[in-house]
Specification:
The complex is a heterotrimer of chains A (125), B (158) and C (162). Chain B is α+β, with helices and mostly antiparallel strands and 158 residues long. Chain B has a single domain (2-157), classed as 2-Layer Sandwich (60s Ribosomal Protein L30, Chain: A), CATH 3.30.1330. Chain B has 3 helices and 10 strands. In chain B, β6, α3 and β7 (125-130) form a beta-alpha-beta unit. Classes of the chains: A alpha/beta (125), B alpha+beta (158), C alpha+beta (162).
């Protein structure tokens, strides 16, 4: 089985870094999609089957919090695993997101190895 | 047979009866690579980050520096049949120890530069035991690829 | 580490420490604080990124560096060589993201992980020597040498009380 992954971040640098990391893991990949914000992500999620979403929080137009809320309200997307990749440092906010059912969280700056571990854990579980 | 990798030294083997070992990894970095398909195992004990501080020394012994030693380790491993997609890299050392020039940060610099080179060459580190203020011994079994760290007499698999 | 009413901690020191740590971890670049009068550059074009934060404390953080430094930053984060096809936009984007991370980490270092801050999206502009010299002259601006190249960073707090 190979996976479709969606990376959501307004920074092209971050999207490319995550993309490269994913391709260096043993995770069988089908497609890796990119979106610059929550709006683009929602459009893509409506068109493509996505097995995992990696999203930033702070983005223009629609931020990660809103994206996650919209996914959880959609019966077709509510079970799609989400990992937050963010500079967010507030434990309050992180706990709120975990209560919404986010599967993983990794704080920037992160090493590719740390990201690999978080992603692999989500797929194993 | 056990082969000792000295300071600023590198060894490779395809003999399943061999093991490679290096001692006294303080600020130095010990890096192992292992191809589980072809059975190529290698180890390098690196002292310093960048060869530009002494190009003549680097020419005479590339294994002294991270930026010359790591490419050489991989090149020689490929020559023995190792393939990048099958290689596992493990790292030990890079401790915060006052070196001969009274600097504390050589270990950290070694490690950061290693990470940069590996990242630019599309290689992830499989596991590591770095930093702190301890001296480590690193060993690699060529038959199994098992990498072991020894600190203060206590051994653990990396 | 929580700042709260601790007046012995200089936010500038925290900002510099955080910036140096982030540069190492994210971009494999070595930084150290430097007196601004020792920062020499022949660069003519610089990238200047800035952003605001709001919450229990409000303020602005910013970073300015020669475009060549930004290009190296991008190459390192992306794991490519400098001569591969990186655009000026890639260099600017890398600096914006670096600032984003420095801001988030600095706020945690200063105020702990309890307060909730909102961060703006980092802005970017390309500037020349005049802007660089102006920024150098600002007291709050801190000088760094990053892989022996000059970089300026600043953190300005709005002294608003809740």
């Amino acid at each position: 089985m190979s996976y479709n992954i969606l990376i959501v971040d307004d920074s092209k640098t971050v999207r490319m870094m995550i993309d490269k990391t994913l391709r260096l893991t043993d995770i069988p990949l089908s497609q890796v999609h990119h979106a610059q914000n929550g709006c683009e992500a929602i459009e893509l999620l409506a068109e493509e089957w996505i097995d995992l979403v990696l999203t930033d929080i702070n983005m223009p137009e629609m931020d990660g919090v809103e994206l996650i809320r919209k996914m959880k309200e959609n019966c077709l997307l509510e079970k799609t695993p989400v990992i937050i990749v963010s500079t967010e440092g507030s434990q309050t906010r992180i706990d709120q997101l975990k209560q919404q059912g986010v599967q993983g969280y990794i704080r920037k700056p992160f090493t590719p190895e740390a990201l690999k571990e978080v992603v692999e854990n989500v797929f194993v579980n | 047979m056990q082969h000792v990798v000295g300071i600023a030294d590198m060894k490779l083997s395809t003999n399943p009866e061999d093991s490679l070992i290096t001692h006294a990894l303080g600020s130095c970095l010990g890096v192992t690579l292992y191809d589980s398909i072809t059975g190529v195992g290698g180890m390098i004990h690196i002292m310093l980050p960048m060869s530009k501080i002494d190009k003549e020394k680097a020419k005479a012994n590339p294994f002294m520096f991270v930026d010359t030693g790591i490419p050489e380790l991989f090149k020689k491993a490929y020559a023995l049949g190792a393939k990048k997609e099958n290689i596992t890299v493990k790292v030990a050392g890079g401790a915060k120890i006052l070196d001969a020039a009274n600097r504390f940060n050589i270990g950290e610099r070694n490690y950061i530069l290693l990470r940069k080179i590996l990242w630019k060459n599309n290689v992830l580190i499989a596991s590591e035991d770095v930093g702190g203020e301890i001296s480590r011994t690193l060993s690699l079994s060529v038959s199994t690829g098992t990498v072991t760290i020894r600190v203060n007499g206590q051994a653990k698999e990396l | 580490m929580s700042l709260s009413t601790d007046n012995t901690i200089d936010p500038a020191d925290i900002l510099a420490e955080v910036a140096i740590a982030v540069l190492e971890k994210q971009a494999f670049m070595f930084g150290e604080r430097s007196p601004k009068d020792e920062l020499i550059t022949e660069a003519e074009t610089f990238c200047h990124a800035s952003m605001e934060f709001s919450g229990p404390v409000c303020g602005t953080v910013g970073i300015e560096a020669p475009v060549e430094v930004c290009a190296e930053l991008a190459a390192n984060i992306l794991g490519v060589e400098m001569d591969e096809s990186l655009s000026p936009e890639d260099a600017g984007d890398a600096l914006q993201e670096l600032l984003n991370v420095i801001c988030g980490q600095s706020l945690t270092a200063l105020y702990g992980d309890e307060p909730v801050f909102d961060l703006s999206i980092p802005r970017l502009e390309e500037v020349g020597c005049v802007d660089w010299e102006m920024e150098m002259a600002v007291t709050d601006t801190i000088g760094l040498l990053v892989d022996e190249e000059p970089v300026l960073i600043y953190l300005k707090l709005k002294e608003d009380l809740p």
